[in-house]
Each structure stands twice: as C-alpha cells, then as structure tokens.
Amino acid sequence: MTTPHQPSSTPSKKTLAPSSVARELPRDENARPLEHFIPIRKADLVRILSNDPGLELHERESFAHFCKLLEATLHHDFHSHLDELKDAYAPFDPDAEPKPREKLTLEQRESHAQKLFQRFDELMTKANFRRLSDEELQYSLNTSNESGVTITANLDIFDRLDIYVRGDVIGKKTVRNWSRLGKPKEVEICTYQRLAVMFRLKPGADSKQPIDPSAVVLKLFKNIPKSDIEMLLPGTTVRMTLFDKGKIIIPTLSGVVITLVKILQGAVALAFASLHGAVAFLALISGVFGYGLRSFYGYLNTRDRYHLNLTRSLYFQNLDGNAGVIHRLLDEAEEQEFREVVLAWWLLRQSGFAALTSEQLDRATEAWLEKQLGLKVDFEVSDALAKLQRMNLCRELPGGKFRAVDLEAALVSLDRAWDSQFEFNQQAQSTLPIRRAA
Q1: Has this prediction a pTM greater than 0.85?
Q2: 137 C-beta neighbours (distance < 10 Å), count
Q3: Are 174 and 184 in contact (CB under 8 A)?
C-alpha cells in the first residue's frame, strides 16, 4: 500500500529550505479561506435562537421541543455510525480490551483496513476537517520549527499516513531571544487549531517506537504550529545543524592551529624552561579542547531542552488517542450537523413566504452568523438542505427555491421520524419462532 502523503518528490528529511518550497497561506485574516466549521456550542446556539425577537413567546416551548427531537434523531443516526466505526477499528486498535475473538487472514485484514480508512475519512469530512495536502506537509518538513532545532522525519517507515486539520489560524506564542536580551516577546505563528493523525507502519519498519506494525494509530492534537507537524510522528530524531557543528569544531580547530604555530615558533622550549611555563602550556591545551567540549555539551543541553519542551507541549496539546479519537470526532460531527440543520431551517423560516434559493440561503446564513455571532464561516448549504429535505423540514418549490415548514409541522415530522426508528416490523414479527408455554 502506498502512503498518500509520501509521493516520490516529497523529502523524507527535515531541513532548512528556501521559501519557494511551499507557499504560506496569507497572514491577513480577511484573505484566508473560510472553513465550514461553525465554532459555537449547540446549547449556546439554541439559547440565542430561543431569545431571538423573531420567535414569539408562545412558540419558545415548541422550539425547545423541536431542538430536542432534532438532537435525538441525529444522535440516533450517529450512534449507528459509531458502532460501525468501532467495529471497523477493533482489529487495529492497539488499546483494545478485550481483543476481538475473530482471527482475520492477511487478505481480510487488508479489506477491513481499507474499510476503516474510508469510514474515517467520511467522519473527518462530517467533522469539517480537511486532509493535509502534500504541499502543506512539505512546507512543514522544510521549515525550521519553533524550538530552533532540526528534525529528521523518516516517512519511509509508514505504510499509511493521513493527516487532517481544521482551524487554520494565526496563533501567538511568547519567545525569548538574545536580540532582546532574553526579554519575552509575543510572536505570530501559523497554527492548526485541530490536527488528527492516522497512520500504520510498514512491517519491520525501524521507528524506535513500541508500536505494533499491524495496528492503526489515531491521535488528535490542538494548537499545533504548521512548522511542528513532523514532531507528532514516530521515527523522528534531532540532528545537529551545520551551525551546531561549527560551534564545536571551529573553536577547537582554531585552538589547535594556534597551539601548533606556537610550537613551531619555539614557544614550547621556552614554556618548559620553568614549571610555571609547563603548567601554562598544559592549561592552553586543556582550554582548547575544553572549549570544544563545552560547546558539544551545550548542544546536548539544547537537545534535551527540546525534548523536555516537546514532552510538555504534547502533554497539554494531546486531546485523545486511538478509539477515543473516534468518540470525540463523532460527537463534534453530530453537533456540527445539528448547527447546520437548525440554522438552515431558522433562516428559511425567517424568510416567511418568500422562499429562498440555495445561494440566497447560503448568503443569509453567513450574514446572520457574522452579524449575530461575529463568525466568518463558509456555510455548507447543500449539505444542510439535503438534511432538511430528508427530515421533511423544508419543501422544494418550482424555480429551485426552498421554504421551511412551520414549527408545528416540523414537530410532527420529527416526532414521526423518531417513532419510526423504533417501530416494530409486523412482517419481521411473523417470521420469529413462537415461544410455547411449558
């Protein structure tokens, strides 16, 4: 199996690269592409809509019932998705307890793995994540990280590597540098608010990590700088830069050269003329090599500080792992679907008898989000309308226009849909064996 993010042109080493390797997204927030994700809690959105002047006082209780029925219906749908994903992931979950009893052949494992990758990709789409492109991964691999150390990222160990991101923002970080005499300074950093990694190692790959190659590993992180993505992957090592090597080698060599020059000039003969001269000569030699040794240990201390900072960062930036990632993302996807359906129905309802086209609903929803909540979002109108139609919460009229059903009709539709989830099939009942009394 090939790795989606490992084309032949992608480097497997992290080095300082020219800016032309990958183009950075604009730092101007107004110029950055908008995302589908609506960053507001479900409960907060319901509260805001319930207090909207467009909703009559006598309708607020009905609207609360509408939201509860919609929430229950979506939760039931996503519960089935959860069971399917859990079942697909069970053979590859390194933390599974208990383990699946069914033993799969190599062909069956590969078929199950392909199904898992497809289902997980669908989940990430529902949660409004996007797959990281090869160019963006290359940018990370070829950009010096914020810790100031150079990382070697070996992508050859991966049989499969998928990286998903959401929330491309400009974050801020406090740093200290010598130009400001160690004073703290706040700098802007291009950051992903959420980043998910899904990978499987090649059999026999030397990653120096205690990971079963047959397992599929899932990780979810928050607030990850774009230049630090490779630090989240196994098989990465810290290596010395030319500057680090120069700090060690150049002072040592220069000291050796100076010492040799003095020897050739006959300084040694004079130095040994007295005990003090011999001590001075030995001190000179020791100082030369001692400075190089000090530089080397300075590099080791820098590397240790990097590992410590990485451990601290991952401790606070790691949100979940393996099966926990599936649970968390399904919950986020469920809330996102709720927000999309409620907002689309609300804005159609607000238009009254003036039905809206898909484009008009899209603009109206985005304008409402920006005006009422200060959120700039690329509303996924086609997906929202598809859900409304499936739940009979809107009607399509001639001319490609849509009109929301009124609140009472919406309650009836949702109640009927909810009841049908648990309706006992009479035909199925007739096929069940009859239990006779003893």
Answers
A1: no
A2: 24
A3: yes
How far apart, in whole angstroms, are the C-alpha atoms of residue 5 and residue 339?
32
Residue 417: which residues within 8 A CB-CB, separation 6 or more? 73, 391, 392
Q: Say if residues 141 and 153 touch (Cβ distance below 8 Å).
A: yes
Model pLDDT for residues 246-295, shown as the tens digit of each residue? 655 666 666 666 665 655 555 555 555 555 555 555 665 665 566 566 66
Q: Where is pLDDT greater, at 273 or 361?
A: 361
Q: Would you call 242 helix, strand, or coil by DSSP?
A: helix
Q: CB atoms < 10 A from the CB of 4, how many?
A: 16
Q: Judge whether residue 174 has pLDDT over 70.
A: no
Q: Which two tokens stand for residue 361?
A: 């609903």
Res 382: pLDDT:
93
- Concatenated DSSP letters for 33-98? PP-S---S-HHHHHHHHHT-TTS-GGGHHHHHHHHHHHHHHHHHHHHHHHHHHHHHHGGG-TT-SS
Pairing of strands 217-225, 184-201: antiparallel
Residue among 88, 81, 87 nearest 113 (CA): 88
Q: What per-residue confidence (pLDDT) applies to 30?
A: 52
CA–CA dist 391, 340 (Å, integer): 13
In terms of pLDDT, which residue wins out, 410 or 304?
410
Q: Which residues 6+ apart lie within 8 Å of 186 measured at CB?
A: 172, 173, 174
Q: Does residue 12 surpass a pLDDT of 50?
A: no
Q: Produce one character per residue of 45-83: b if its CB has 16 or more CB atoms within 10 Å, e if not.
A: bbeebeeeeebeeeeeebbeebbebbbebbeeebeebbe
3 state DSSP class of 271: helix
Query: Which tens digit of pLDDT belongs to each residue from 311-334?
Result: 766 778 899 999 999 999 999 999
- DSSP 8-state class, residue 215: S
Q: Which two tokens stand for residue 244?
A: 């680090």
Contact 17, 143 (CB under 8 A): yes
Residue 143 is classified by DSSP as: S
Token duo for residue 335: 């809330």
Share of the chain above pLDDT 70, in %: 66
Are the C-beta atoms of residues 174 and 185 closer than 8 Å to each other?
yes
